[in-house]
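Follow-up to my post from last week.
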Amino acid sequence: MTDTLPDSLTTQSPMGRPLRRKEDARLLHGQTNWTDNIQLPGMLHMAILRSPMAHAHITHLDVTPALSEPHVVAAFSAKELGDLNGAVPCVWPVTDEMQAPAFPALAIDKVRHVGDCVAVVLATDRNAAFDALEAIEIDYEALPAVIDLEAALEPGATLVHDAADSPGTNECYTYHLPGTGIPYDEAKAKADVVVKRRFINQRLIPAFMEPRAVVASPMGVSNEMTVWSATQIPHILRVLLALVTGLPENSLRIIAPDVGGGFGGKLQIYREEILAVQIARHLGRPVKWTETRSENMVATHHGRGQVQDIEIAATKDGKLLGMKVNLLADMGAYLQIITPGTPLLGMFMYPGIYKMDAYDFNCVGVFTNKTPTDAYRGAGRPESTFAIERIMDELAAELNMDPMELRKKNWINHEDFPYATIAGLVYDTGNYEAATAKAIDMFDYAGLRAEQERRRASGDPVQLGIGISTFTEMCGLAPSRTLGALKYVAGGWEHCTIRMLPTGKVELITGTSPHGQGHETAWSQIAADILGIDVDDIEVVHSDTGRAPYGMDTYGSRSLAVGGQAIKKAAERLIEKARVIAAHQLECSIDDLEYAGGAFRVKGDAEKAQPLAAVAFEAFSAHNLPDGVEPTLQAESTVDPQDFSYPHGTHLAAVEVDTETGKTTLRTYVCVDDVGVQVNPMIVEGQVHGGLAQGIAQAMYEGVEYDEDGNLLTASLADYLVPSAADLPSFTTSTTETPSTTNPLGTKGVGEAGAIASTPAIINAIVDALRPMGVNDVEMPASPQRVWRTIQEAKAATA
Amino acid sequence: MIPVSFDYVRATSVADAVAALVAGGEDAKVLAGGQSLMPVLRLRMAAPTVVIDCSRVTEMQGITDAGDSVVIGAGTTHHEVMNNPLINEHTPLLAMATATVADPAIRHRGTLGGALAHADPAGDLPAVALALDAVMTVVGPQGSRDIPAAELFTDYFTTSMAEDEILVSIRVPKLGPGWGYHYEKFQRTAQGWAIVGVAAAVQRNNGTINQARVGLTNMGPGPVRASSVEQALTNAAATAESVAAAAQSATDGTRATSDLHAAADYREHLARVMTERAVAKAAGI
Amino acid sequence: MSHIPISVTVDGTTYDSEVEPRTLLVHWLREDIGRVGTVVGCDTSSCGACTVLLDGQSVKSCSVLAVQADGQSITTIQGLAEGEDNWHPVQTAFKECHGLQCGYCTPGMVLATVDLLGENPTPTEAEIREGLEGNLCRCTGYHNIVKSVQYASDLMSGGAR
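User reply:
Got it. Predicted complex:
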């Protein structure tokens, strides 16, 4: 029944084929290695006392009563922890003037968001550690909570950070990017139409299914400080833990075992990781902490959280002239790893796929008494895509044009590539025409428009709306020079080592760190194709700095686009080394050899062949190597990408809105994505599906809510509405293939595409359904109540 | 998270359970299916000293035909209620509403008696019990007594059962021939709680609605009987127009509150819309 | 608070154990007897990651006390088909249809599916979606999970769908 079942896999190249995943046997049999599974001799369980207040002075704190509770070994507040109370680092100081307040792992004197860490208890029993938290004495003196972004910037506002060296404002930074064209005001002066909107891109909770967990063992795997963590970034974590704790980097080993999702939420160095390492080191015993879901909601960073003032200027016939973007970006209470930079990842993408003469971007980062924000699937680009794709619909409505026609009139034509955008990027390739034509065809655009007309004419209480999103995104983070120019402190390269063992088995050591993406399968496909061997003969080694020492990990749709290049180059280098040995064994010149099907053959003499595995054994035994050739058969490559890649696509949604209740039902979702060359189309499709669900969830279901005192109202999965299967439809997905020219595999990225593209498609569809009633925006999530109220307000306004 | 430490009593009879409840005092909690209690314990919103497990009390099991009513043991799981032929034949509204409770795994453990005794204003089953005039049999140290549904639900998560009483069985009267039923639930996600729910039973005779019973979920501290709607529907024409008109009084006597998912005015609006839909479907309009 | 003796059969093996009454079944499985294939995802019985079969019926093992399972029989993801070379049709279908990514919801999703297909061997798409409403997945968008269940139904009913 499935349309993706493989046919015979025996002879063809594995590239581009929907191979079933190597990971699945263990995952489907429960033979998994989650961090929380780990039990070590002498291990202590850490439980954390968290602030129930959004903003307060700690007037009294005494952990000593906890020490008399059963099974308790130690308890710490900031006072007891002293110098071990590491500061959580931010690696992206986006401006020289940026306010970067102290972020101690355990709060000192003051708490700044609900969930702030105040004290910890270490016990030999997990339940006892929890129980002992209740013995800690603590008193707070409440302070006003800073919640609203605009109010936070008012003169005289309560300060989230009021240390002696604080600049006396909740502004973290202001970042201005002028476009490469004419000044925006000049463009605006020529415009017939200017459309302005304020969009709220609400806070979201990543809600990966595996809660975070960390185990730090000072005696480790081989007598170093070994840290198992449910993280996306074991390599970056190693560097940062060394910097934060002062432990020598070469005595730290980080292992991310099976990791159950991340979506940016595990792209972080967290307080709890620092505490576990420092306390394990201090007590000389392994320390384990596993997050409860209740902690996850307040202590794992949130995503999004922007107020977007968007202005677009156009001629009366729909030619775009310019765009102006003013953002307020909610930092939350502290800066985490890339908190300030996250909104700026969208900075280059507000113009989307369109040509225009002027662009102006301004972003103000704002501190609030809320959980810190940071990367969440798309990180900056969903926000920019939402803004441009929403305002294109509003401009079309203003101009009385079909929203698709307006897009076609302004997008970058296929023959225009490579195209230097107004935001300063060069899009290498794209074919918006092809993806759109295919999507329109699959969607029955004309038929649905006709049905919409019928429902409008008959006054049907259930109205139909059609939403469009023609998006592009930048992925494959990132050229290191570009990151440097943006003041990000690290690089964006990726590493691979490939080693053929004497038995002919291959270890592929990658610096990427999968947590659901299927790298073990896809990376095997890339290498097996080049090496001409079976994918099952390749073992992908990852996510353990002891076995895979170099890497920049997995985020930003970078793993294939960047890491894939390193795999290709390492595999090719391995063949080149083997070629020298094979030529020696076959007593011919290296130029006489061709390599195919896993063996070297002498051109014109099919009988003279040497399998790669035989070369590997020779490289191992080293009995008869050519002069100057070192034993062992391995090669490595570290690749810095030359540029980003730019996936794009056309997404179309049809929704039914019950105007009596405000309830939206997503009826049809069609998308055609162009992610370049696909290594495994089954995995690509799965990535699109998952992204769609998260993007649709932002539009319809999910949104963090705080009350005015800074209490998180959406503090469990019962109140924060992650959709289930029953809340979503099946999707109709397809692809076009316009190879990227910025990497030799022609791949782009796919991890974030669905999440970036789908949100505006849904909101555009809801607004489209209701536009005849006078509705021209619906805030997210478009809950039934919100839609119903929007309808009532529009009715009142037009009455 | 981890519940606080407590003692555990596995009751083997109702008398056994009552004795344990008396001994445990106000810090004792009855565990039926546990599907509401366990999250509360895990979040440490409750800290009982003793939990009395009634899930193996055979007197609280079973579904029997008592002539003019169906008697359902309080420990009957939602899954059993949904799939029981007697209930589906004689009181299908209960089966319909139960099928909307939470999700299949929770319905395997959660019980009818537990849901009623928990008296969650967003729970689906209290409104059904109210609309159907179910009668609860409870047992305490002084023996057994019956509580009509109309007198059971007194406030948020509060019933008229004494602290030392246990709900043992629920008697649901059969309505007889000519009745149609529907439970209309409005929620944000499929497994979510009802923002508003409407339980409707309508007896129709050709073009006329003879009588109707309507219970509302989450329109106040407890379930609400929509008496004004019932009166308006008595001997009303079985038309969409008369149902719509009757539904306008759905909020009479309600005390809707505002929460994360719905403000009171929106809830009231939904109560009218859902009542119209529930009654229309029950009446086959 | 005293410990209570229990005897529970898990994946065919009977375990005699003494537990604190407050011990959740999922914690007993993971920490007392080392059946770590079953996982915890939330505090509010919302996510279903911990779903196991208790006397053949799906339950959320975070919402059952270990003492409540005394004398009963549990099937976890590790007991559905012992050993990585043995595959239950639902496991096969999830692999074939790419019904999992990170795999954290998978134990619960698979056991919920076994229960669903036991009750309704040939469900419609809507019945599948509603039947899995208590199991959250953050990776797949459910599209391929639904296909997996349909394919499992085919495999188990001999193509009767």
